[in-house]
Amino acid sequence: MKIAIIGAGLTGLSAANALKEYSEVTVYEKAEVGGLAGSYQNEDKGYWIEKFYHHCFRGDEALLDQINKFRLGRKLVWRTAKTAFASNGKLYPLNTPFEILRYPFLSFFDKIKLARFTLSSKKKNFRDFDDYRVVDGIRDELGEKLFKEFFMPLLRSKFGENYVDVSYAWLLARVSIRSNRKYSGEELGYLRHGFHQLIERMAERLLIVQKTPSISFPLSVNGERYDAIIYTGPIPLLQDKIKKAAKLPDVRYQSSVCALIGAETTLSEDTYWTNVRDKSIFGAIIEHTNFMPRDDYGEDLIYLASYSSPTGGLFTKPESELKKLYLKEVEKYGLKEKDVNWIKIFKAKYSGPIFEKGYLKKVTDYRTPIKNFYVAGMTSPPNYPERSMNGSIKAGLEVAEVVKNELGLV
Ligand SMILES: Cc1cc2nc3c(=O)[nH]c(=O)nc-3n(C[C@H](O)[C@H](O)[C@H](O)COP(=O)(O)OP(=O)(O)OC[C@H]3O[C@@H](n4cnc5c(N)ncnc54)[C@H](O)[C@@H]3O)c2cc1C
Fold first, then answer.
1. Is 377 in the pocket of ligand 1 (CB under 6 A)?
2. For FRET with 171, which of 114, 340, 357, 399 sits at 20 to 30 Å CA-CA?
3. From the centroid of its chain, how far is CA 76?
4. Residue 102 pLDDT more than 90?
């Protein structure tokens, strides 16, 4: 049996590894192995760092299994990650109950309302709220002040200006899976020296053809016949003819623009993640070397993360202009030009679906109406409500099971 997998991101790599002992597997990748979880190597200092910030959670079973399977378990480290809100150039830590109580932009009463909301969200069936917008849900339940002062910056840091279309179901589902915070903050995991180590090992024994594939009927890729094809890229990049025959939904995606800065200092003493409350071109500041040891890199590393539309806004601005914009803006939070060693801009056109109103109807099944043509990846069930490395690995493993059963490979 011959199987083609389109895309060498985490979905494609995990599907390929799960299928390779049962059939001949070819992976087609049009850009870089690793996809959104890809890394960049600093040639001067030799280290690897993800182009877009990455960490994992204790509950990421599929990811943690792969890390162990590829003998990288000893490299996995867990740290309590400190978070903050940035406002008017100042950072307000928000980790301990004391820091939350001291936070000046919400009243004591609002903070109690927030705590109650977290508890009640877990009891709600989020699916019932898919046709509501998150902006309406929060305003109705918690009022304008909490929406503006607390939720809007968080939503902006996750979806950019697309936050207005996001569904209330997404927020409820996310609050309920992510409320496992410890007293001093949330515990996050990282593969010390980078997730590229996992990607390299996953790709090691696979046949990966770095070429843009063209799919045609009867099922073939670049003219070569296959018994099954698994497509793992974003839906808008699939050829129109195939998308139509596979009856795939029109999913709206957002793009990511991330500035990565090598510097002589961090902005804060020990904060990893800062949500930016000010109107700014970036919604979050991620201080990687406040999470992992600076000595691993020989300098500090800071991400400035923005989400945009794939067809406009920041995504379409030239790199030289973006570098200037990010450097100017980060100065407000205390990073001086003299302390910047270098800046790089990374962009991803389709970095994730926008979990907009009605999105749950668009979550895609692995099977499609085209016999032996399958779709897995960011729109698969394990990637809701959080698109993640874990969700993509799980989607890759699940689609491999479906293919094995349908082709009788078990
Ligand atoms: C800014 C940002 C931060 C993130 N942070 C985290 C985090 O902290 N923790 C976490 O768990 N997850 C995080 N993620 C999410 C995680 O990176 C993704 O969910 C995961 O890597 C997606 O894997 P995938 O294989 O499903 O998709 P992709 O990585 O998009 O892989 C698809 C691959 O298919 C290729 N492709 C597409 N079309 C074609 C075609 N026609 N022919 C050939 N190849 C094609 C692409 O080039 C790509 O390599 C983050 C993502 C972003 C953008």
1. yes
2. 399
3. 19
4. no
